[in-house]
Amino acid sequence: MKIEIWSDVMCPFCYIGKNNFEKALEQLPFKDEVEVEWKSFQLDPSLNPEETKSTVDYFREKKGFPEAQARQMISQVQQMGTGAGINFHFEKALITNTFSAHKILHLAKKYKKTNEMEEALFIAHFIEGKNVGDHKTLIDLAESLGIDSEETRQVLDTSTFDDEIKQDIQEARANGVSGVPFFILNGKYSVSGAQPAELFTSALQQTYDETVAPLKIQADNGASCDADGCEI
Fold first, then answer.
1. Can the peptide bond before residue 49 be classed as cis, meaning omega within 30 degrees of 0?
2. What pLDDT, on a 0 to 100 scale, did the predictor assign at position 218?
3. Structure confidence at residue 214 (pLDDT)
């Protein structure tokens, strides 16, 4: 069963959604049959990759929120994070263009380490206050997962994976995705936003029952042959 997840590194709800989704999946008996594919989405591609902003400043400049309102919203998200097992440090977070971070995610996909890289980027951004647009930071993160630093540098310095990122974003638009996180469950159902683990559990179970289990039942019926002969 395939789960596609559109996400952006600087989206706190994507981190919350990831934790809740993984908590739900861990409780299901078919968890080993689930393939997760992370897909790129940029919430604000207009950001300058050479600059960083604090979370409060970003809300004030981009959304026009007064500082008090921005801090109140941040506090609410922190509380949601605590419920999902995440200790957000928004006072450290550096808002910047995430295109380079998405390039590293696509590189990690080559080594089947996308989930690990997604987690590493969230921690770097929301917990450690690292600049996830900085090439050295990204090279260090990739190296921590066993990905060659020279290959990472080449990816960051060239247009490698640029088309794949743009394709992910176009695919999101084609599916009506306007915000993240956004989950598509085996091509049949979708879940939008950082939903509670209980909702993910229910949605995953329903998707499995309707799209995978019937195929297994059909596969268990009927005569067949293998290398040892035929059985009726």
1. no
2. 56
3. 83
